């Protein structure tokens, strides 16, 4: 809780996980995960479906408690027992399912749990900040006073991203932030990630889009079947990355590429 | 200011209606999409008063309406608590028993044991709060659905009520006491009720103007002044008219004043505080609320405790209304009426939608039906059937409106 007082210096380690495991009954969703995030760094978490990316994010967001292992935040061991603790410490999350309340309007969702002046809600100030924040994200929201139920998938995603920025966090985790976004909004989110990184925040991004990952990530952490499977940089070749994700140099992606290459070479020009 | 669109009016795709015609169009759009608000209540009130006054002109006589308001206050207060639990998508089926227990406690503690009245009232309210806390713990820690826990509470609390009343079964409250005076006789002085009738309109204009100023300073659009003034004027005229009509009879009951005051407080809590926002959020999407850092358990605790405490208060008021604590207090249709009032008034059984005013308007509808049927000399058997039918219609309207809202993207 006291960790919020100062902004960490660039390159300082904000978050480190050692030997974190999470089991759901007989299923080991995460086994012995090691992860470091430094200030001013974008870490991409990649892996196939079921690799444990979202579970890891939920552990860091305080939604799930790890079965084993230690989490260190700003140099101190911490227990993230509720989402409120994580938010309080400065770990903001955009969940894959967005976690918005459909019956509330955009302003209420953005400030949920952290309203301005709790005993006499300052709607005007909240609305102004909502519009400013959404403008920064190049969001196309027709009205912030409509219930979230009336927004499209992309608009909701923008709202969820805007909400994560509201609390002035130290680390932002984005679980598939661009999955439902249009071309301009995706570019804005990538710009935003870079802006946030330059401000000295740590960013963890989960994405299946390798192009997006390469565009912004400083390090690419690969998970496979709930375990660490290597750390790469954006210079790593596409083949190596895919091999690490799928666990073999010979995989469906490489086979498809070989087949396409053979077809292109085989047909007479 | 005139050329540059305000912060919230920059999107060219959205229609903004500032004229009165536009306001009307906005209103019909809302209705069509299933956002019915208070409309069903107002329609049914008009319907009920027309039918009953045709059958028996006494129905609309000022003094009958004054009696109606006395009756509204007791169950209405219970209904305010029901709004809180329904808002979370939960229910409290034991409010009737709780009110009965509270009324029995007043009789036993105050009349039989000689405890001072304020202390007896405090004890009854504290018991209510305690029972609400038990429900919340059962829900939060053991995951017991409120439907089941409060159903068992219904029986257990009724048992407790019978136990403390003992074999005599009924205790009369001294007729000259302030408690009975409050429940049967006390009327707001005419000047005070007229003054209070001016208050809502005045507050509306005052708050409206200050919000308008703030919004303009912040570069946001604001509602046109004419609409604000017209709304406030219409409200004031309606209220003063009603108060004038009631003063042709005995006047506005103090007990009803207390009920409205509680509704105003609850309305402020639900719409203008962080607690209220959290109530709506938990009712709409519990997991999302938890991930936003809301202490969901505390919200459940507050709602269950508030509900049972208000039920106890309702029981105290009904004891004062009947001038007795008896085994019959809180039984019969009290439970159903309290829940039905909230639903008829527009609080959704599915959670996440509702308002304190729904309890006020809903209980007026329920009591008007029951009062009208009594005037027609219909037996309670027919009254039960008709009230049950009305509740069924209200729930059907609620679920149809909900489906329509979902398909129109209004959550």
Summed over residues and divided by their number, the pLDDT of chain B gives a mean of 90
- Report how far apart the termini of chain B are: 34 Å
Main sheet record of chain B: 2 strands, antiparallel
Q: In total, how many beta strands of chain B?
A: 2
Portion of residues in helices of chain B? over 70%
Briefly, what CATH class of the largest domain in chain B? Mainly Alpha
The rounded distance between the terminal residues' Cα atoms of chain A is 66 Å
Described by the principal axes of the CA atoms, the overall outline of chain A is globular
Per CATH, the architecture of the largest domain in chain B is: Orthogonal Bundle
Order of helices and strands of chain B: HHHHHHEHHHHHHHEHHH
Q: Which terms summarize this structure?
A:
heterodimer, A: 269 residues, alpha/beta, Rossmann fold, 10 strands, B: 411 residues, ABC transporter involved in vitamin B12 uptake, BtuC, 2 domains
């Amino acid at each position: 809780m006291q960790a919020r007082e100062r902004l960490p210096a660039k390159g300082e380690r904000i978050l480190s996980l050692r030997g974190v495991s999470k089991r759901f009954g007989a299923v080991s969703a995460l086994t012995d995960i090691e992860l470091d995030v430094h200030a001013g760094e974008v870490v991409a978490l990649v892996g196939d479906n079921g690799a444990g990316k979202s579970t890891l994010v939920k552990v860091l967001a305080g939604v799930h408690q790890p079965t084993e292992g230690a989490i260190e935040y700003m140099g101190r061991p911490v227990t993230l027992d509720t989402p409120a603790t994580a938010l309080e410490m400065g770990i903001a999350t955009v969940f894959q399912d967005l976690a918005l309340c459909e019956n509330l309007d955009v302003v209420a969702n953005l400030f949920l749990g952290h309203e301005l002046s709790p005993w006499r809600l300052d709607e005007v100030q909240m609305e102004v900040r909502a519009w400013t924040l959404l403008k920064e994200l190049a969001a196309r929201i027709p009205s912030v006073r409509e219930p979230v139920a009336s927004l499209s998938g992309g608009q909701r995603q923008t709202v969820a991203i805007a909400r994560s920025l509201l609390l002035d966090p130290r680390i932002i985790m984005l679980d598939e932030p661009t999955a439902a976004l249009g071309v301009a909004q995706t570019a804005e989110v990538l710009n935003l990630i870079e802006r946030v990184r330059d401000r000295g925040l740590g960013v963890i991004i989960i994405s299946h889009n390798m192009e997006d990952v390469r565009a912004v990530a400083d390090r690419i952490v690969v998970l496979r079947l709930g375990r660490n499977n290597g750390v790469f940089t954006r210079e790593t070749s596409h083949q190596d990355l895919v091999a690490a994700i799928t666990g073999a140099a010979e995989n469906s992606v490489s086979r498809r590429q070989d087949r396409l290459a053979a077809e292109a070479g085989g047909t007479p020009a | 200011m005139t050329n540059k669109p305000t912060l919230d009016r920059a999107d060219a795709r959205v229609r903004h209606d500032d004229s009165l015609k536009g306001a009307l169009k906005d209103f019909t759009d809302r209705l069509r999409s299933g956002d019915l608000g208070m409309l069903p209540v107002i329609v049914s009130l008009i319907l009920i008063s027309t039918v009953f006054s045709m059958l028996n002109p006494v129905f609309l006589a000022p003094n009958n309406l004054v009696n109606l308001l006395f009756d509204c206050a007791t169950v209405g207060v219970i209904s305010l608590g029901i709004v809180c639990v329904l808002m979370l998508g939960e229910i409290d089926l034991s409010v009737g028993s709780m009110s009965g227990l509270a009324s029995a406690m007043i009789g036993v503690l105050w009349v039989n044991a000689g405890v001072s009245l304020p202390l007896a009232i405090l004890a009854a309210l504290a018991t209510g709060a305690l029972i609400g806390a038990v429900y919340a713990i059962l829900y939060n820690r053991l995951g017991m659905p409120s439907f089941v826990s409060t159903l068992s509470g219904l029986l257990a609390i009724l048992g407790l009520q019978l136990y403390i009343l003992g074999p005599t079964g009924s205790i009369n409250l001294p007729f000259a006491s302030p408690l009975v005076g409050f429940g049967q006789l006390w009327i707001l002085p005419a000047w005070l009720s007229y003054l209070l009738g001016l208050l809502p309109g005045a507050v509306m204009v005052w708050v409206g103007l200050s919000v308008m100023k703030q919004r303009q300073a912040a570069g946001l659009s604001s509602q046109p002044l004419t609409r604000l003034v017209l709304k406030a004027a219409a409200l004031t005229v309606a209220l003063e008219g009603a108060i004038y009509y009631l003063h042709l009879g005995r006047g506005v009951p103090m007990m009803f004043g207390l009920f409205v005051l509680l509704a105003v407080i609850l309305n402020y809590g639900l719409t203008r505080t962080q607690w209220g926002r959290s109530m709506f959020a938990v009712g709409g999407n519990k997991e999302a609320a938890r991930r936003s850092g809301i202490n969901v358990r505390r919200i459940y605790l507050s709602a269950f405790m508030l509900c049972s405490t208000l039920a106890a208060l309702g029981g105290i008021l009904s004891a004062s209304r009947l001038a007795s604590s008896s085994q019959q207090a809180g039984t019969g249709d009290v439970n159903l009426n309290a829940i039905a009032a909230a639903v008829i008034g527009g609080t959704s059984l599915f959670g996440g939608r509702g308002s304190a005013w729904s309890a006020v308007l809903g209980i007026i509808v329920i009591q008007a039906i029951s009062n009208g049927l009594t005037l027609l000399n219909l037996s309670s058997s027919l009254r039960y059937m008709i009230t049950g039918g009305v509740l069924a219609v209200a729930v059907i309207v609620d679920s149809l409106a909900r489906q329509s809202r979902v398909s129109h993207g209004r959550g």
